[in-house]
């Protein structure tokens, strides 16, 4: 029987956190539960690998994706980082790329405004880092990003003087990853983009 810290990594615990994320209306509670899943799914050790698969099997991914629509900055941040960690599992990465990309892009600032929810710098960086993880080693997910009209926002962030250096750097890393997929360049160029839009700004 599990004992000590192993108790944290049981399916019942994952189900408990997912139940909280489904039923709670309290932003602090939601942030804490998402943060717990974020911590349990971090890293490359055996238990984290197990948690990432368990969240998927317990149908937790749609619960987290829906919470990207939250009006709470801290909830969006915690959920984004949790999804980034969960996407280290290949099957999760494919699913998150298919179903979460649109919500992630909607949380990014545009030329007109920082974002629809005026998210803080740390949260925008978290969303960008999550997108980067999702498209790494997945040209299909990068294609999904293009289809959500994400390139326009990413280029605007990377070239903007009103965004923080951390935000512009994170956006530039995403753009560099997209351009690395040679099979996507024709589609990008047809949309009016060229190599200069994807060069990393340091």
UniProtKB/TrEMBL annotation:
One of its GO terms (cellular component) is adherens junction. One of its GO terms (biological process) is cell-cell adhesion. ARM repeats lie at residues 59-96. It is found in: Cell junction. Keywords: Cell adhesion, Cell junction, Repeat. It holds the Pfam family Arm. Gene3D superfamilies: Leucine-rich Repeat Variant. InterPro entries: ARM-like (IPR011989), ARM-type_fold (IPR016024), Armadillo (IPR000225), Plakophilin/d_Catenin (IPR028435). Belongs to the beta-catenin family. This is ARVC protein. It comes from Syrrhaptes paradoxus. The lineage of its organism: Eukaryota, Metazoa, Chordata, Craniata, Vertebrata.
């Amino acid at each position: 029987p599990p004992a000590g810290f192993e108790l944290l990594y049981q399916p019942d615990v994952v189900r408990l956190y997912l139940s909280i994320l489904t039923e709670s209306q309290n932003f602090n509670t939601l942030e804490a539960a998402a943060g717990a899943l974020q911590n349990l799914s971090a890293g490359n050790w055996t238990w984290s690998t197990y948690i990432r698969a368990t969240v998927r099997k317990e149908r937790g991914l749609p619960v987290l994706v829906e919470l990207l629509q939250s009006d709470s900055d801290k909830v969006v941040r915690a959920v984004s980082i949790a999804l980034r960690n969960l996407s280290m599992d290949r099957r999760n990465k494919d699913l998150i790329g298919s179903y979460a990309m649109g919500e992630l892009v909607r949380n990014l600032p545009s030329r007109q405004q920082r974002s629809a929810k005026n998210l803080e710098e740390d949260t925008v960086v978290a969303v960008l880092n999550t997108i980067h993880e999702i498209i790494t080693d997945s040209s299909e997910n990068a294609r999904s990003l293009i289809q959500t009209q994400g390139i326009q926002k990413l280029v605007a962030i990377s070239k903007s003087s009103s965004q923080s250096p951390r935000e512009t750097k994170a956006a530039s890393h995403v753009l560099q990853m997209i351009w690395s997929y040679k099979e996507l360049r024709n589609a990008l160029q047809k949309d009016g983009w060229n190599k200069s839009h994807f060069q990393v700004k340091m």
